[in-house]
Amino acid sequence: MYILIEYVLLMLVVRLIKILIDVDYCNIFFKAHSKKARWIVCIITYIAATFADIMFDSIFISIIESFIVIYSIMQVYAGSLDKKILFASMNVALECIADMGTSYILSGSSIIQDMSVDYDIQFEYYLPRQFIAIMLFYFLVIMVKNIYRTREYSDRSYRWLFFMILAVASIGIWYIIARGLISTEGGMICVGAFLLVMNMVSYKLYESVVDAYRYEKENEKLKEQMDIYECQISTNIENDRFVRSLRHDMKLHLEELQMLAAGKRYDELENYLSAMTESAKPLYNMIGTGNPSVDGILDYMCAKAQDKGVTIKRKLRIPEDVSLSAYDMNIILGNLLENAIENTLKTDNPYIELTLKYQSGTIYMNVTNTCISDQKIENGKYLTTKTEDNMYNEEAVSEGLSIAGRHKSGKHGYGLDNVRRCVDKYKGTMKLTCDDGKFVAEILVYVSTIK
Which CATH superfamily is domain 287-446 in? Predict the structure, then answer.
């Protein structure tokens, strides 16, 4: 009875793994209508197929069952009927090939040679057979997936071959164990060689994952810089259009001013000048330090603050040729100004003062904003008062994403932590103070090289 329970549990696990492989196979060629519907069908199919596995022990029924299972799963995917039948048949063929390969591998095993009608022996045989069959089947599915991906998307990444080597090594070890060769000198050497190969391949897989992660981070940095440049270009285009419009109308404005002055209509003259000054305000807001690493992020953040009714006073003195990382400046200035805007909007007098200056290889940054009285700073760290509802996903900035693309999150205090990490990279210092209704963030970083 105990062996029977173990046998049923093993069949449940085997069928679950096969269902997951079938889903992975379907994802190669089709796109699911609904993920929810897909998993509902998978659960129903899993229950029915497991029942059939327990009730029937026939190769013919097993083949029909495999086709029905994969075809049923394909019904929640978009695709023509003939295409589904074709790929379902190919899936069954792959499973049959895996079973034949398993039979060959275990054909001379000590388990089979000693197997009789004893149910315990049958169970001992079932475990390695199913393991090898699943490994071979998944091996074939991965090959199909990567061949299709290479042909369809011109993907020349061959990291999947590492997984193939691991699968072959695992099957090789099972083959040696099944044939009773583990106790021989040759068997021990082969197992040791397989384990060595598996460890080397695992390390190469780790290296490939690290390289892929590094490549992804570099792409994110490039995307961040593109977002900054896009923002700056859009602002410059808008300002250029405004200057062209102002220049076009300047002759008319001067004639009107001359006429008002000649007629001594000083009240109208004053009103006209006020209107011209108001219309020229976009020119006052334009940031033009000449350093693209600074101009892009400040243009965006200052425009965002002014749109929300925040008064900003700026003191900027950054040379055009000073070496600055656009990625790091985006994190530092973006997070400081984001926090300043959010905090100052809680007050009756939203006001931010920004100081940014370069001198003798150092960059000094100061962001001061009005704030409410419950700001807490302990051991130089700001204890945020943000809630789940008003938190911005500051982590997006730390990961190199566009500021405009942030979304709400439950993460707290990540923004200033990311700023501190960037400051530490430059061996700089960061100081936070809150006194007399003003929150002050001061940063000093060292820039050793000039472009």
Answer: Histidine kinase-like ATPase, C-terminal domain (3.30.565.10)
